[in-house]
Amino acid sequence: MSASQDQDFENYENATEFLSVAIGDGSAGVNVRVGADGRGFIWWTDFVANDCFEVFPTLAMALGRLALMVACSADDWSRMFAGDSAEFATAWAEFEDKNLV
C-alpha cells in the first residue's frame, strides 16, 4: 500500500460505522463508514479471498456505490463495475447535480 492508501485506511479505521450489511444472499459483506471530514469509506469482502476498499468525497457517494454493488449482486454477480472509484465519483457528481436543486 502507498502512504496515501495507508492514511486512508487509518482514517477508515477511525471513522464512524454507518452501515454493515450482507448482500447477494450473503455472498458479500459490506461496511460503510463516514469520516469526521464527511468522506465515505466502503470496505467489502466475498468472505473467500477478495477484499476491496474505496474512499469517496461524501457518504452519499459511497452509498451510491453500494447501491450499484447491490445491483451487481442481484443477478448473481454476472455483471460488475464498468468503472473504477474515480470514474464512479465523476458520474455520481453529475447525477447529483442533475437531481438536487
Instruction: Identify the overall geometry.
Output: globular
Percentage beta strand: 25-35%
In total, how many beta strands?
4
As for the number of domains, it is 1
Counting helices, strands and paired strands, the structural category is: alpha+beta
H-E string: HEEEEHH
Helicity level: 40-55%
Poorly predicted runs are none
Query: What's the arrangement of strands in the largest beta sheet?
Result: 1-2-3-4
- The average pLDDT is 92
In DSSP terms, counting alpha (H) and pi (I) runs of 4 or more, how many helices? 3
Classify the oligomer: single chain
The major sheet is characterized as:
4 strands, antiparallel
Q: What is the alpha-carbon Rg in Å? A: 14 Å
Distance between the termini: 39 Å
Structure description:
The protein has 101 residues and is α+β, with helices and mostly antiparallel strands. Helices cover 43% and strands 27% of the residues. The protein has three helices and four strands. The protein is globular.
Structure summarized in a few sentences:
It contains 3 helices and 4 strands. The protein has 101 residues and is an alpha+beta fold.
Which labels suit this protein?
101 residues, alpha+beta, globular
SSE arrangement:
Layout: H1 3-14, E1 16-23, E2 28-34, E3 40-45, E4 51-56, H2 59-74, H3 85-99
Antiparallel strand pairs: 1-2, 2-3, 3-4
